Amino acid sequence: MSDSFSPGKPRPRWCLESTADGGKSLARIPIQKLPFRIGRLNDLELTLPFPSVSKRHAVLHFAEDGLYLRDLSSTNGTFVNRKRVREAILEEGDILHFAEVEFRIGRRAEGATQNNSDGGTLTLRRVDLPRQFIAGTRELNRLLEREMVTAVFQPIVSLPAGEILAYEVLGRGTHEKLPSSPKKLFRVAETIERACELSRLFRKNAATIVSDAKVHLPFLFFNTHPSELGTPELVDSLREMRNIIPDHELALEIHEGALAEPEIIAELKTHLDELDIRLALDDFGLGERFLQLAEVPPDYLKFDISYVRGLVDATVSKRRLLSMLMAAARELGAEPIAEGVETKLEAGACTMIGFTLAQGFLYGEPVPFTHRNARHSETVEQPLQNFQGQHQHAR
Q: Cα(61)–Cα(67) distance, rounded to whole angstroms?
């Protein structure tokens, strides 16, 4: 194949990604001189001095339809996304193995520093080798480009009645080659620095689903990714969400770790107030974080599932302490919510110590909007009024 490229068409700025500094940072090796030869010999564009790598192992080259990888009859093989290949066209996010040595295909930003600008041989030492890239980065890129996500809804209820007052809206992936779990998807997205984009897509998609439903749902809690905090894109995303569903009561959940940066939370709270969106703190636990609540109190405080798990058999002193924490939260204007309630005993224990809001599998698993019990849709207006009135002081 020829290494020619279409006239007038800019050639993509490809690179091989590895890790450096003991895995703490990402190193990008620019693919400049073509063909880009890889192997154990010292006169190649990339030298991998390991016994499992052949002297001339593989070569990268351009053709009219993109970047190609060709194996040079290596002993231990060349792999793309863990499948052995003789030749393959590459896409951003592909994971490459030359024997057991691992890289990922990436794109360099305009103006990026050239690690190998003289076009000479680059030798990658063992200390620079990556541990293991997470599979699925190529598919994750496609998921984002094609917006292959959906949303599920989990009820938040009143105690002790169990009446649905709100829903937490959770994102799910729909790419057939990726897990649907947001936790697993974010692990992949974080490795290619696209977690913020995934989080924004989850919110936009969920808001669109709610808008298209033509049913006024009760109070809705949306989530964030920690990397979004302090970015203008988060505010833009919230404004977009509010424009899609202008008439719904909304809350934004952030992780309790954000309390370490009260200036950022204060600025976010200002924007939330402008958009009429309340603030909820998720996964709240004991420790120094409680004192930081006073800096920028949230409207709702979700107590971590670990509290509920041990509550049934907790000592009197532990229950009293939790009751005191809840009372202190309410003094700051934050209404407590018990997370992870799965049994009637746990629900009873939560009620006894003063929780008036709860969430967990006892009241319903996260399910798509179309699969929710029709009874919930018929009774949402009154629970919404109860939610707003009963906890008005949380504003």
A: 6
254 strand-pairing partners: 281
Angle in degrees, CA 349, 354, 355, rounded to 5: 80
The token duo for 36 is 């880009």
Q: Tens of pLDDT along 247-286?
A: 999 999 998 888 888 899 999 999 999 999 999 999 887 5
**367: which DSSP letter?**
B
Please give the pLDDT value at position 45.
Answer: 92
Kindly give the residue spans of alpha helices, DSSP state H, lying in 126-231: 137-146, 182-191, 195-213
Cβ–Cβ under 8 Å, residues 14 and 73: no
pLDDT of amino acid 52 = 87
Per residue in 103-121, pLDDT (tens digit) is 889 876 555 444 443 344 5
Beta strands 300-303 and 335-338 are: parallel
pTM, to two decimals: 0.71
CA distances from 339 to 151, 311, 336, 343, 362 (A): 19, 12, 10, 12, 11
Region class of 367: left (phi > 0), else alpha (psi between -120 and 50), else beta: beta
Phi and psi at residue 157, to the nearest 5°: -120, 165
Name beta bridge partners: 301: 281, 336
Bridge partners of 252, per DSSP, are: 222, 279
Mean of the per-residue pLDDT values for the chain?
83
**Edge-to-edge strand order for the sheet containing 87-89?**
87-89, 66-71, 58-63, 36-39, 46-47, 122-123
**Assigned token pair, 76:** 């231990």
